[in-house]
């Protein structure tokens, strides 16, 4: 049980540390933003508190000094300099290291703790001397001398949101909370630290002594908190127990509080405690008079007490209602394993549904067809909903890259900014995870090979500081992610020379610019003259390409000498389910991903024969190459008198596939073909049809590429 | 099916052509009747295709072709034996075509002999041993070896044709 809490702490702490990193990086760019500084402090503060609570003593011990530094900075006693950011970032990294080391603390980690803590103490102690605002001319603390009142989370003076607000809070811990080792008292005192706080314990659920289970929590708390901290800061106090407890935080504005002095108790109960008016009247009739309205805190305790009395039988119902009314349950944390299971189940449903439609079609039973259609619609919604749950904004990874750029540019003696666009673009969780490494590689490459040294840049008439733009955007069923730098651009001659030297291309071979650019994806290719620590080991771009290929995506490059390079990744939105077009050739079924289908045309058999070896057909004013799947895949049987051509979009053009029949739109659960078939080209996966047989999914891009090379060979041969 | 004793000695016997082979039952998941196998184009001929087994896509391999014995005839008794094998350093579920599945027998490892150096059409690596049952010979297959990945498979076939 405690382990479960520890792992929940670790999860939450990872998240907080992630936020902390991006906050610190933002703070470096905007040193006078007191809200950022407060956010950083809150993150550290929460980590420290919870670490102590769950027995991560080393983290608690170390974090204390780091917190001090941030606190001093909040008080304006330490300027936000690069050194300050450096130290705090290193501190953050160290907490992460401690977190993953957990019980197996090494001497080295302890020493790092001590060293960093020492540095923190020095910085904090140094701050005492000069006094507020006395240092840091270039990056002074600016407007951040807050009117310090409470201990945590207040917003700076001058900002519009400083007016304290009042919240109604109900904290009902789960009955097992003591068993987990949680100290409820420290939670409540943390809460009280946030501002003016009145809490009333509700002890009416405590049974008679004989029936008490001493390990169970029978108490819950209600009360009011007037604070400058925002709702999230309040929530942060309970962050580690939230999943098992119920927490209600409700805004109350000042006027209501003042009003309540003059209101009847019954009215207040209806307003704040969600007691149905009927209940009040019933209570009134039983008790005759509810009593005079008391002043301020008196009211609060009395009325909540009465609430419990009046609504005891309805306590559960009331609580649900309150939560609903306050819109508290706006998000829920779910283990990703459960989500994967859900997706699998929906996948099975989709398959089963396809079988149902097919059966109802075969049976020609009208009533069944109606049910099947409705079912299909529902399943489609369920599928979209499930998929959308798995969608995450890609921005969460973008933050990591800022750190990469910051650290790496320092290391390389270069100056660069990372700008991001489209951080809100949503993508399947698994896709995002698998994109991380390739993107790091591309960004490193841009910094290492693309962006020039500040001196070179000035000589070129460019700003000293290079820019890398990381951009994500939706494009149909795909997401385009591009990394664009304003560096030197790819050096075509150097690439070519290197490729010749490595024996990748023949010395005299003619290559288009696009082909030369593609060479950098060749395994074992690297143009860096010296092998640097960062990139240039020749194991970069080919790995990127492989990973993107395996995601069903593609990589393209555009570059201009002296102006920069742009690398664009085209990634499918999801890996699990796609819409496909089911086609038949002979007795075999294939699925073409619908996202890449441009259109379908009919072609009489004799026309097909006439075109013969040229294998080019007119389509909407263009001449397109096509593949006869029957002959390409060696499928037995004769082409019917009228064949169909499915026109599909490929990475950079279009291609036609000759099939016997187009059966129709088909929701497809993608199943991997498995490791035994990993070398097969032209097929990217499989799917299970309604009747339980397997159909293969065409890999349009690979097929187009294979056909291209084949026709080139033919041309060369003739 | 019979003789539940002697765990490790239990083998499933099946035919490839006229020859009798056996695999340890611990590797056998289930025996299926022959069904529609979806061909995967551009794959080596001994990889007959894929089937749907309990919602997963499972490859089906024709060991006869791999051993250079010509394709399976797909007659009445043809079955697909679903096996768990160690492939490229991980567990993999595969289907194996068999011309007929006989029974589970108890074979005492002490009774098995090492394969003779000559006179077998198979590479010795795939043979765990040869057991005698009455006056019949049963070849015990090392299935991990028999399904080993592509390049080696080709070499195996070449060796078989020699």
What does this entry look like structurally?
The complex is a heterodimer of chains A (718) and B (162). Chain A is an alpha+beta fold and 718 residues long. Chain A has 5 domains: 127 residues, Four Helix Bundle (Hemerythrin (Met), subunit A) (Up-down Bundle), CATH 1.20.120; 164 residues, Histidine kinase CheA-like, P2 response regulator-binding domain (Alpha-Beta Plaits, 2-Layer Sandwich); 57 residues; 179 residues, 2-Layer Sandwich (Heat Shock Protein 90), CATH 3.30.565.10; 141 residues, Roll (SH3 type barrels). Chain A contains 23 helices and 21 strands. A 5-stranded mixed beta sheet of chain A has the order 6-8-9-11-10. A 5-stranded mixed beta sheet of chain A has the order 19-12-13-21-20. In chain A, strand 8 and strand 9 form a beta hairpin. In chain A, helix 2 runs antiparallel to helix 3 and helix 15 packs parallel to helix 16. Chain A is flat, with a radius of gyration of 33 Å. The N and C termini of chain A lie far apart (74 Å). Chain B has 162 residues and is mainly β. Chain B contains 3 helices and 10 strands. Chain B is globular. In chain B, 35% of the residues are buried. Chains A and B meet through strand 20 and strand 21 of A and strand 4, strand 5 and strand 7 of B.
Largest sheet of chain B: 5 strands, mixed
Tell me how many strands of chain B there are. 10
Shape of chain A: flat
The amount of beta strand of chain A, in percent, is 15-25%
Q: Kindly state the number of beta strands of chain A.
A: 21
Count the domains of chain A. Answer: 5
CATH topology-level fold name of chain B? OB fold (Dihydrolipoamide Acetyltransferase, E2P)
In round numbers, the mean pLDDT of chain B is 78
Query: How far do the termini of chain A sit from each other?
Result: 74 Å
Across the major sheet of chain B, the strand order is 8-1-2-10-9
From the 3D coordinates, which CATH architecture of chain B would you assign? Beta Barrel
Order of helices and strands of chain B: EEEEEHEEEEEHH
Give the termini distance of chain B in whole angstroms. Answer: 39 Å
CATH topology (fold) name of the largest domain in chain A: Heat Shock Protein 90
Uncertain segments of chain A: 129-161, 257-262, 287-297, 306-328, 528-539
**Top-tier CATH class of the largest domain in chain A:** Alpha Beta
The CATH fourth-level homologous superfamily of the largest domain in chain A: Histidine kinase-like ATPase, C-terminal domain
